[in-house]
Amino acid sequence: MRSNEGRGLGRMDAEAQRLLSSRAATRSDRSNRSPRSKDSDSSAASNSKGVKDPLKMIWRRGFTRLVLVSAILWILLILFALLFHLWSCHSSIIFLSALCKKDSKVLVMLDTMGLTPQPQHRCPIPLADEPDTIVIPEITPDTIPKTLSYIMEDEGGNNSEKSQPLFGGHQSWLQRENSFKLNTTTKVHCGFIKNGGAEMDAIDVQYAQKCKFVVASGIFDGYDTPHQPSNLSVRSKKLFCFLMVVDEVSLDFIKQNVTVREGSDGGKWVGIWRLVTLHHPPYDEPRRNGKVPKILTHRLFPHARYSIWIDGKMELIVDPLLMLERYLWRGKHTFAIACHKHHKSIYEEADAIKRRKRYARPLIDLHMKIYRYEGMEMWSLKKGTISDVPEGAVIIREHTTMTNLFSCLWFNEVNLFTPRDQLSFGYVVHRLEGAFKFFMFPNCEYNSLFILHRHIREHSSVIEWVKSLDEFKGNQSGLKETRGGLGLWTPYPGDLRSVELPSVKRTSPAG
């Protein structure tokens, strides 16, 4: 019995040990199961729901990688193109710089984002410390000429032309030649021929009579809106008249885009600027109209003793009284203008104008041939001037008879030939044979006087794209101006056929 009981207990112990070892083996098997086994299990489970095609999975992964790689390559290509564009625009290699469009939308966008390298073209201006301490000097005495008067009747032209007087008059070649001869008493063409256009409102004429110190600017054909000067002293605000000359198109445009208030006398104001409207613009070309207030400031505002001209797209950031002290009174000058950043010769400037299509190429060439025939040489150190080409966006003047005469002669060249006034400035200086003294200050100071804003819209004229004089024949295309530049169509007294323009070496990437 006992033996049977012992055997029964032995069997129970053996069975218990078997169960325990079986459970331990099961746990060990579960813990040691490989990922592959798990994948097999999951695959089996998924197969129960639906089998996935391995080729489809590989294709999807490959397509995703292809899209990502393509996107990265496109981004790199675009970055490379932008970097090349920027590099070419600032390259000293003429071929590459010629490929760059300075006014391209890409460059404008990058410039707006602050991604274009800015040239170091500004420098400190040695200004006086305090406007209130500046002593205004006595008027510079006139020497030669002592008296200057103006031709007011349009005497030239044929009968049909006489029916419509020209603002600049029909100046003959002989009158032009005699105008460069200095005499004690001088009478010259100087715009504002009777019934030739550019009339001011009576209230503006009356207002300008009290203006002895003038900051003048101009906007034509709705290119800009007035930019308010900054850093003005209380003294300058009281001393200066800020006069913005506009045509009727620009006046309407300004009214639509900025607040224009009306003064007690009926005058129109935008901030500190008084808008002076010129009715009946004298020229077909807006750029030529803009030369009237720019060059003939003394004719528009004859009571002004001093004037500072700034282009309409500029925001003046220097007190005008400090400018007069720096550029006129300190060196006892009566006329100051900045030198051009790149060009010293008018022939270099003419070449750049043609490249940039800023006026008809054949008319630029004809203009330069006349100057070449009349003895205008390339600029050199022998001339005794810093440059023949100015930056004309800022002009600082005391209205003496000599500076007024120079302005008249300069304007007459713009009236007779092309509206590119930088081409004729140096020529008039040359013709006066050293009698006209002026201060041409560094270009880096010029760029420190203002903030340059972009035009709201760019000027565009079909005449800028003309490539040959044949396109003007018969004037059927409407390209030929009817009221300006007539000196290019009037038979010239000299033989220009043998005149060759000097070769120009492009020393800068200036467009």
Distance N terminus to C terminus?
123 Å
Main beta sheet strand tally, sense and closure: 10 strands, mixed
Beta-strand percentage range: 5-15%
Strands, total number: 14
| Helix proportion range | 40-55%
How many individual domains?
A: 2
How many helix segments?
19
- Shape, please? globular
The structure class reads alpha/beta
Protein name: TOD1/MUCI70 glycosyltransferase-like domain-containing protein
Keywords: Membrane, Transmembrane, Transmembrane helix
InterPro entries: TOD1_MUCI70, TOD1_MUCI70_glycTrfase_dom
Pfam family, one: TOD1_MUCI70
Describe the protein's architecture and organization:
The protein starts with a helix and ends in a 59-residue tail after the last strand. Helix 15 (346-355) packs antiparallel against helix 18 (421-431) and helix 17 crosses helix 18 (421-431). It folds into 2 domains: 62-112, no CATH class; 148-488. The chain is an alpha/beta fold. It has 19 helices and 14 strands. Strands 3, 4, 5, 6, 7, 8, 9, 11, 12 and 13 form a 10-stranded mixed beta sheet that branches.
Outline:
With 511 residues, this protein is of the alpha/beta class.
